[in-house]
Write a structure and sequence with these properties.
Structural class: mainly alpha
Order of helices and strands: HHHH
Oligomer: single chain
Largest sheet: none
Distance between the termini: 105 Å
Length: 181
């Protein structure tokens, strides 16, 4: 009699432990998903800030080139377009365009980080309901695969330094061409 009650108590406790384990995993995945959501929100704010700065600097750089021409057109004197004056204003506008290009590139990087964090959040929050429908061995295999894809470190990206070097070489080539004219 006592052994039957003990067996039933152990069965109930085992079931409660399994339920608690499932709730714990769902809670942890939800918390991690929420963390990725907050990371994504931060990345979006930074990306938008860089995008706005890039837009403003692009407009200022274009204004350095275009505004004097518009002012000359609006004068009552006859207007003649001179390439040399426009080319003389390009170095001034390049001083503004270079940071604008940098901010635009940084905005793209932060936007990419936001998308990755949103993807991770989505995977973590939808994984448990999907796994519940699977066999336990397939579920564990899927968990391992998801863990590898989500939490693995991405290799370092050397393309950013290549782009910066490429931009500097393009600017130096432009400077050489302007000096030769």
């Amino acid at each position: 009699m006592l052994s039957i009650k003990t067996v039933k108590i152990i069965e109930v406790l085992t079931k409660l432990q399994e339920d608690a384990y499932r709730v714990y995993n769902v809670t942890i995945n939800t918390l991690q998903g929420g963390a990725y959501s907050s990371y994504a929100n931060e990345e979006r704010k930074i990306a938008n800030r860089y995008r706005y700065l890039a837009s403003i600097l692009m407009l200022v750089g274009a204004a350095f080139i275009i505004t004097p021409e518009i002012l000359m057109i609006l004068e009552e004197k006859p207007y003649t377009f001179e390439w040399t004056k426009v080319l003389g204003r390009i170095p001034i506008s390049l001083v503004v365009f270079v940071p604008a290009f940098y901010f635009a590139r940084e905005s793209g990087k932060h936007r990419s980080n936001e998308i990755n964090n949103r993807r991770r959040q989505h995977i973590l929050t939808t994984l448990d309901p999907y796994i519940e429908l699977m066999a336990s061995d397939k579920a564990e295999e899927l968990k391992v695969h998801v863990a590898k894809t989500i939490f693995s470190e991405v290799g370092s990206d050397n393309s950013a330094s290549d782009e910066a070097g490429n931009l500097l070489s393009q600017l130096s080539n432009l400077t050489k061409q302007l000096k030769s004219k």
